[in-house]
Amino acid sequence: MSGKVTDSKQMPLAAIVSIHELGRSTVASLEGDFQFSNLNPGIYHLHVTHLGFKSYSKNVEVGMEGAELSIRLAESEILLAGLTVEANPFKNGPLEQSQTILILDRDFIQRNNGGTFANAIEKLPGISTINTGVGISKPVIRGMSFNRIMVNDRGIKQEGQQWGADHGLEIDPFDVDRVEIVKGPASLIYGSDGMAGVINIAPAAFQQHGEIEASYSSMYRSNNDMISHSVFLDGNEKDFVFRARFTAQDFSDYRVPADNFVYAGFLLPIFDNRLKNTAGRERHFSFTGGVQKDWGFSTVTVSGFNQQAGIFVGAVGIPNINNLRHDGDHRNIDLPRQDNQHYKVIWNNTIQLGKNWMELDVGYQRNQRREFSFPHIQGLGENEFGNLALSLDLDVYTANLRLNQQHGEGGQSVAGFNIQHSVNRQSGFEFLLPNFESLQGGVFYFREQRLNPNLVWNGGVRLDGAIHDIQEHLQPIFVRMQPTGEFEQRNADIYRTFLNWSGSTGLSWVYKDDVNVKFNLGSAYRIPTPIELASNGVHHGNFRHEIGNASLTAERSYQADLNISLSKKKILVSISPFFGYFDNYIYLAPAPRFSPLPGASLLWEYRQNNAIFTGGEFMSQVSLVKNLNFSLGAEYVYNHNLDTGLPLPLTPPFSTLAGLEYKIPSLGKNVRNMYLFVESRWAASQNWVDRNERITEGYQIWEAGLGWDLQLKNQPLQFQLSGQNLGNAVYFNHLSRYRLLNLPEQGRNISLSIHIPVGIR
């Protein structure tokens, strides 16, 4: 396959040209010429990108005599116009998709790295996060989170006890090269848990033959004295591809702009404006090796996420002045604390079968979560577990198979299945959820057809099923910290089976190459999780007693999404309204009574009601003058419990994010690619709350930064200096679990990051 890349004036461009299925890429010459040799006859999906131009994607059929292409890129000063969709089932461009898809590259993630992967993506409209201090956060899409959002890492669904607000995503933020976010129902392709959306994390394309590169990244954040280091090696040697990464992050107790907080009606001090025992330590690694051939590629990735994080002493038991007082070391990790390990082995395959392509992903995950605290705080004496309050061991085996088939010039289909087997084992002197085994999976068929050059239709169906086998649990009873020899049944044996269908259809219409209208209509089906069916214990991370409901039935949703976007050289405007009706929506809500268990406050129950979700996102970028861009994003979510007439709990407020970025002309030969940015987030007060849920006041915070590349002889260095919450504002995140303690978010934070790429060969 060969060709030439030019702009609208037929001037050559040294663009990056990639073949998605093979993971191969090349850079066109200064004359715009490119070539791929040794290709088997077949159909390949081609991506072409160049800074300052809209991305280009096309399915190319290569015969025995090859293929000759002439590619013309359209100019654009809009940042997001240079990105293309790769992880979608048809490997085509964003215009063909009927759903709203946001694409982030490594530059965006590096610029917005807040210490966790979820924090790096919350600047996108429709995306927010549930935070637990520092180092623990999980994404929220259109007001829904937990088991309604699927996170796929290298094609495998991430399973890490995501049902808990204090259980973050065990993803190394430095080990993410590209993210594609599907907003709205995506159960059809990905499975039951994709009802609210899917986050696909994809690795970088392989290096070209004979190339070996390395890099070093580091970051410092002043608020909690976070220091991060990450080293990376990536290469391709005679069709053997390999990459490795190691990351270390250490942080101390973080600072808040407050001197006290309120707990159970008591006013308690915050010494030195630092929350005691919120320090943490992280060590992560990943290794990938495999082969890249003319028939595709096969790789194996082994990764580990290791985190030890303190839990604010006010989060477990009843805090007092003595245990809130600092011991002089802001980096030590004392009790209570949590230790999290997440290990994965993932085998990825893309194999050419004539003109078709088969993708096979097989994975094994082991998630280990340990929570340590003092037994006497929970009214317990000596026990066989010592200080181990809760241990959750989850083993997950996953397999995904997809067959992509072409149907003439404008049609293609994908058929496949997903299957997952999970085994959970618990121990510790506390109880939250029982031992269980779960087997679930589904089969699907999805078809896309180009009806005319500017109109694409897609649609498909899926059948999902699950078997949950949950074991009875008997919890020892203590009186005055002494065991009585008696037991309390926290849950009985539960055996449930589920089987049902999902379906969706959509259109994408392009008008004069500038306007894209997408519409998607779907009905999704979500299976209750063992946690929703059988949990029954104090979840100290959330300051509440959570109890499941063994009689829960499956959810059914009917959702409609519309996206209208205008994309020209100097302006991008996108509006995305959505509406969803949920039959038997499962949610966790505060009950009007207190828990009978020691160390707990309110009782929270899993319930089911009919509900609606509606709202929308707005996103715009405007090139005001040369090198000066203005951006504005807004998001709004409204939900309504149709049975109670009240809102659902933990609904994010209306918010906007406005920013200005100026690209500073180069200052000599050594200082290049300078940029200056200012951003302001405004969030409205959240008064639309469920019964027994607190109102949260609105806020406005500011962020600014400066970035530049420094060239030292032949070695480039990339720097960014930025500040978050520059006004040291006292504000509350409605979704933060520390909001229940009246603890504000982090105060002023100055960040410095450096990235050093090294070309070894």
Question: How large is the count of helical segments?
Answer: 5
Query: How would a textbook summarize the main sheet?
Result: 22 strands, antiparallel, barrel
Helical residues, percent: under 10%
Mean pLDDT: 87
Structural classification = mainly beta
Which residues sit in consecutive blocks of at least 5 with pLDDT less than 50?
none
Please state the overall shape, judged from the principal axes of the Cα atoms. globular
Tally of DSSP β-strands: 42
- Hey, roughly how much beta strand do the residues contain? over 45%
Span between termini: 25 Å
Task: Describe the protein's topology.
Elements: E1 2-6, E2 16-19, E3 24-27, E4 33-35, E5 42-49, E6 56-62, E7 68-72, E8 100-104, H1 106-111, H2 117-120, E9 127-131, E10 137-141, E11 149-153, E12 156-157, E13 178-183, H3 187-190, E14 197-202, E15 212-221, E16 226-237, E17 240-251, E18 260-263, E19 266-269, E20 280-293, E21 296-310, H4 321-324, E22 337-353, E23 356-372, E24 388-407, E25 411-427, E26 436-452, E27 455-470, E28 473-479, E29 482-491, E30 494-511, E31 515-526, H5 530-534, E32 536-539, E33 544-547, E34 555-567, E35 571-594, E36 602-625, E37 628-641, E38 655-664, E39 671-683, E40 699-712, E41 715-724, E42 749-759
Parallel strand pairs: 1-7, 11-14, 33-36
Antiparallel strand pairs: 1-4, 2-3, 2-5, 5-6, 8-13, 9-10, 11-12, 13-14, 15-16, 15-42, 16-17, 17-20, 18-19, 20-21, 21-22, 22-23, 23-24, 24-25, 25-26, 26-27, 27-30, 28-29, 30-31, 31-34, 32-33, 34-35, 35-36, 36-37, 37-38, 38-39, 39-40, 40-41, 41-42
